[in-house]
Amino acid sequence: MLARYPRNAISLLSILVFVVTLTVALGTLLIVTITPPRVGAALPVNLPFVPTSVYPDEDIIPPQRSGIATPVTATARSGFTSVTSTAAAKPFYLGIPWAQIGGSYLLALVVSTVLGLYLYIAQPPSLTSTRRLVLLALVIVCTVFVAKVALPGKPLWAVLFPVAAGSMLLTTLLELSLGLVGTLAMSVMAVYVIDTSPEFLVYAPLNPLDSLEKLFLYLITGITACLAVWRARRTSQYFIAGALSSAAAIIVVTAFWLLAPYHDPGKLGWLLLAAAGNGFLAAALSVGLFFILGVVFEVTTSVQLHELAQTDHPLLKRLLQEAPGTYYHSILVGNLAEQVAEAIGADALVARIGAYYHDVGKIMNPGFFIENQRRGENVHDRLHPQTSAGIIIAHVTDGMRLAQEHRLPTRIQAFMREHHGTRLATAFYNAATHLDPNVDPELFRYPGPSPRSKETAIVMMADSIEATARSTGVIDPQELDALVDQVISQRVAEGQFDQCDLTFRDLQTARQVFKAGLRGIFHPRIQYPEPADTADAGNMPLQNGVAPTSGASAVGHDAVPRETPSRTA
User: Fold this and answer.
1) Residue 60 covered by a domain
2) Domain check: are 23 and 163 in the same one?
3) Which distant-in-sequence residues (6+ apart) come within 8 Å of 130 by Cβ?
4) Number of domains in the chain
5) Nearest to 113 by CA among 4, 10, 26, 6
6) What domain range includes position 478?
7) Does one domain contain both 354 and 210?
8) Cα–Cα distance for residue pair 243/150, rounded to 1 Å
9) Quick one: 291 and 311 in the same domain?
10) N or C, fewer C-beta in 10 Å, the chain?
């Protein structure tokens, strides 16, 4: 009933397209030389060996076999590279390195396939559309592209290179798991393009320890940034994550400097400076790109959510002015939902803001909802049950229209669609069956869909529990507990949670939090006694210069009744 994993939000076809596209993009970056020597330009270098990425003719004797470091000249001709040596060897031409091309695309295919398998099996909840897949691929490819363009042959810049910026973006715009997986892919591919680029190998030999240092540096700083920025609600948290990443980078650089066969104190100072700048550069880039990518890819950011929480938002102001009962109901639902979300590990901020806006559609017909009606007046008493049900159900579509007009994030719009799921408007359906036992129940059903996330499911429960408790007037703790159990059991029996990843443990935790919350809201209050003779109340002496009042309505509900009024001199 309650699935271990959510439904397949990402189709197999979408993932296959993602894998193929990422493979082509990464493979192309691996084999393309961004800054090749100019055609006809001779670049004198001293190499003790022929680079491993160079494939000479079989009759060439590589200089390293003689154990002598000999001058080598690299010349580009019509897109191919010829290498000559002053040793007993003649010029040769590489031709097209098919083996290198094939190996590069195979490496890109392996990385892309593993990432695609993870997406298909784990079905990350944040990947709700193809647009999110594009965002994931874009961050990975752009990170590798910058590494390819700017870093080969520049070891100091490689230490400064902020892979952690991509890690922060994936974590905050999507989710933690994708940030960690993306960090792994970006780190491996970035190290490969930096240390195996043909334009770099022509100038210097490949040092395995240097490559291992970069891999550790990018992985550790990226993972640190992901964990530090997870569920960040303030911009300052990005710079805290940057500081932690810088500290991790300094530790990694120092460790590998100690492992090196030769220790150069002067070099260590520059490396530590670059490592310190790594995290802060990552934080600055992630903050800047965070807002841009959030808007372009329609990702709900924490900054947007905090703006929506302001009571001066146009929709909330309208809700307060035109449907005040609904407004205060939504605030209570938001408080309950936030507590439950925190307890079960869901996004508490999203749950609270979604609850604030879940009923904004009631603005269109506020008087038809009980929380906005005066006591003793119910317009539905004069309407046919089917007509009443249509008006009540319409608040879902009305809310969606208002949300689109005010450009609310799609993640918040989901609360309007899903907080009633596909349930029946039970009260009106039951009334209709008394008039016609064969009435079609589909005429009384909400359009849905049922909740697709933990947050919308929590709001569905909070909405029903708060409304039921208020309408029944229950204040006894045992009765409130029974009410919570009954509402949640009904939603489970109706299958409303089949499409979200709530577990039975989550539901049990939610029950306990709802029960504690309701006891705090609907607790019994003190009955304030009336004066013995109300007719003489106006002749009672002043208390501290103020005439005494009687009745609970005349005192604040935090006040306590006085046993004997005291006189003042």
Assistant:
1) no
2) yes
3) 14
4) 2
5) 26
6) 306-521
7) no
8) 24
9) no
10) C
Q: Rounded to whole angstroms, how far apart are CA atoms 545 and 562?
A: 16
pLDDT in tens, 113-153: 999 999 999 888 788 788 899 999 999 999 999 998 887 77
DSSP state of 74: E
DSSP state of 546: B
- Please choose, from the candidates 463, 363, 459, the residue with its C-alpha nearest in 3D space to the C-alpha of residue 412: 459
CATH number at residue 442: 1.10.3210
pTM for the structure as a whole = 0.69
Q: Which strands, in side-by-side order, build the sheet including 70-77?
A: 42-47, 70-77, 80-85, 92-93
| Domain C-terminal end among 296, 317, 346 | 296
What does the pLDDT read at residue 532? 67
| Contact in structure between 438 and 392 (CB atoms under 8 Å) | no
Interval 503-551: pLDDT, tens: 999 999 999 999 999 988 887 766 677 776 654 545 544 444 444 444 3
- Report the mean per-residue pLDDT for the chain: 80
208: preceding bond cis by omega (within 30 degrees): no
Residue 67, in any domain of the structure: no
Using an 8 Å Cβ cutoff, are 218 and 186 in contact? yes
Single-letter amino acid code for the residue at 323: A
- Based on the fold, state whether residues 362 and 265 are members of the same structural domain: no
Asked whether residue 510 is domain-assigned, the answer is yes
- Domain check: are 290 and 318 in the same one? no
Q: Using the predicted structure, report yes or no on whether residue 293 has a pLDDT greater than 80.
A: yes
Residue with tokens 């039975």: 504
pLDDT digits (tens, 9 = 90+) for 62-89: 444 344 444 444 443 333 334 444 444 4
What is the DSSP code string of 310-354?
STTSHHHHHHHHH-HHHHHHHHHHHHHHHHHHHHHTS-HHHHHHH
pLDDT of 50 above 50: no
| Percent share of the chain, pLDDT over 90 | 49
